[in-house]
Fold these 3 entries.
Entry 1:
Amino acid sequence: MADLFEKLLIIRTPKIGPVRYAQLVDKFGSATNVVKNMDVPVGLKDAVAREMDFAQHNNIIYISDDDDLYPSELKCLKNHPPIITVRGNIEVLKKKKVSIVGTRHATATGMGFVADIACAFAENNIAVVSGMAIGTDTAAHRGALRANGNAQTIAVLAGGVDYIWPLENESLYWEIVERGVILSEMPVGFVPVATNFVQRNRWLAGLADKLILGEADLKSGSMITARFAIDFERDVWAIPSHPADLRGLGPNSLIRSGEAKLCLGVQDFFKIVKNDDAKIKNEKKIDSEKSLIDKLGVVPVSESVLAQLVKKTVSEIKADLVVLELQGLVRKVDGGYVRM
């Protein structure tokens, strides 16, 4: 504990980041010797003591980079944080991991697609890493939490591990604490500023061997995360989107440049056996319903266009669409219907 206190004194000192921290420890041989040879700012010892006390009473754990629990994927990165804080089920840190990121303004179709992929990874004992933002991140976490068991997902925060943001995701935060883990490099109670999110994105990319990019503008935090993953030589995949949608420019550009592999779904990563799948059974029940499903994809199709495609009247296909929607095979969105 004393060693942890001294490490925190160093890293919590203004103008000392991971690089300077490593230089000082290398120069003096240990955190204890560093503290002996530095001028500790007035009040810092009390501040660190209060932080550690708060952490202890709120089940927040400190993990330094010489601890076996420290994620090996992160440790191999240059200038990695010497100490991280975690809250939740620390067993998740030992698992293989996949990072999934994308825009906060994701479409319903995009979020559903991401959630299905995240669920498949969690079901295959691979933890899903994301940033707990609304949109794609939320879909990734919730998709992972659909899988049975614990230790399914990791949320990397730009603020302190106890700082819940956005507030809309408070319930998700506590679900992750219960069944996954919240992770941060920042002090407990820290309120983030814009620059902290870029650093957070770096760790999002570095924590996993694989990164999947969903919908994302060209100039977005998600694209920054993808660039970090490419620099780290991670296995990068991108989910394509309609070229007229600005949210498709990010993933589409990486696919076109060859920097990311084309992701078309769960089948890219796992063998899918659907012989007993309820959706497949439902699709085969009624020929007219199956014909409708075959005409749908991720781009919304209106009732009038569907009627023309299957050579029926709008009133004739409405009943079939209601049944398919109740079965979870299609969804009504702006502009018509999409296939689930």
Entry 2:
Amino acid sequence: MSISNELITLSRQVETLLCPPFEWRHVTGGAVTLLDASDYGGTTGGTWQVADFAIAKYLVTNGQYKRFIRHPNGFCDPQWWDFSLQGIQWRKDHVNPKPTAFEGTDLPRTRASWFDSMAFCRWLSAELNLHIHLPTEQEWQRAAVGDTGWSYPWGNELDETRGNFMKRIGQVSPVGSFPAGQSPFGVMDMIGNLSEWCLTAWGMDNTDLNGYTYRVIRGCAWNAGTPEYLRATDRGVGWSPRGRLNDCGFRIALQLP
């Protein structure tokens, strides 16, 4: 079976367990160059090689996260947070999910901490027998611009019609509302709507899951109004994994065999 046909099958499995819309997009491997972010507490950057992987076309929606909350083996099961002592403690202190900031089935899910986003990935992995994870910072940037060298997923010119940013709408929009803003790999909302949790530890360039180390957040959200922060290569921020933010969500990635 070709990789495209396999991903179609796997997309249907995820969509059946969760709810539409869902689609895996194949991201071919290659080089990723991260800019120097040492002035903001990040690393000095560099170039990495990323293997082939798949990434969700859309951010995780309220409707999909609600399936996790309501599933008999989902949010109610604390095992999904046992990847670190801090994750275990987070779950003990937060036995109930925080309501999303913006209601609507097809709106992207807000107010899920990095710990909660990790738990969602681990639950979904177990249900489908797949290796699902938050994208690393390098994977996120690869999915956003590939080998193009562009500043934005669509090119080098900022175009406010291609995404939900600059506070034009005043809140999140349904996922996939800006198809003209998709990346070279067909991934939506990588600039605008919500910033996104990554697996990578901020300022360390590793994926150690332990501690309360700040985590990389990439992309920008509906309330971003500073043009330089809208670039797909921008590395201006990390955030506490305990943050439950109105302008941050997550999308999932898939390790390919």
Entry 3:
Amino acid sequence: MIVVVNPAAGGGRAGREWPRVSAQLRAEGLRFDAVLTSGPGDAARIARRAADEGRPQIVAAGGDGTVYEVVNGLLEAKERPETRLGVLPMGTGSDLCRTFGIPLEAVSAAAALRAGATRRIDAGRLTCAGPRGPITRYFVNIADAGIGGDVADLVNRGFRVINGEVTFSLAAVLTLLRWRNPRLLLDLDGERLELVSQQVVVANCEYYGGGMRIAPGALPDDGLFDVIINGDLGTLETLLLLGKVRAGAHFPHPKLERRSARRVEVSSQSRVGVDADGERPGDLPAVFEVVPGAIELVVPDPQANLSRSSR
């Protein structure tokens, strides 16, 4: 097993805590090699090389951005037939872990790595406008087009207060103060829509933004995205909704719509950012496509191997 540690995750908290966490993991019998990243893109390169070498398990130790990089390295690898993905949450949001019941404390989460249970889940493939032309990236949790990209930018530039929940909530409020809803053109599996929208959320899992349950009940193994379309919401309306979104109680709402789709295309005449697993890879136009069963994720509960959709 190789552990890819992002010491910058959580505003540097991961780097400060890693020596203690590493010692505890070894004391509990986990055998692993650890590699610390030194900058953006390192985690993807390390994961790609580890998968090509045939490592059976790659663990992302950091936040959702670290998982995002490791997933991209894993899915870009030439050889990855048996490589599993594990997560040690040490970042700001750690939203992927919430859907699967992975503890949000790293040493507690290590119990899942010891148990070795897995669940085969979908990934998303995103193609969008990058700084030097079209780029393709993968995500496993949630992507969106709209205000989320600007919120991600603010947090990734170093905005941190207290914890992930408060950080993302305040970042959303600050972003709202200068945000103007753009007109978007959507294509959902061939159905075209045109509307003024705050954001379009393309969800594989349930949570984003430090614990916001934006897509309650989303199934990460059903071959479909849950698409949440936020309409022309104003600042006050959004602030009143934040608590409901955190609790997953925001439906029904006259300005929110929930759809399912395998392929989502979003474009705009305005410059609109795209967010994928808390990172800002680029801008619209963007295409989001499901990649069924792309990742074998290590999970705490053996029953999680059974898709909830079959229960």
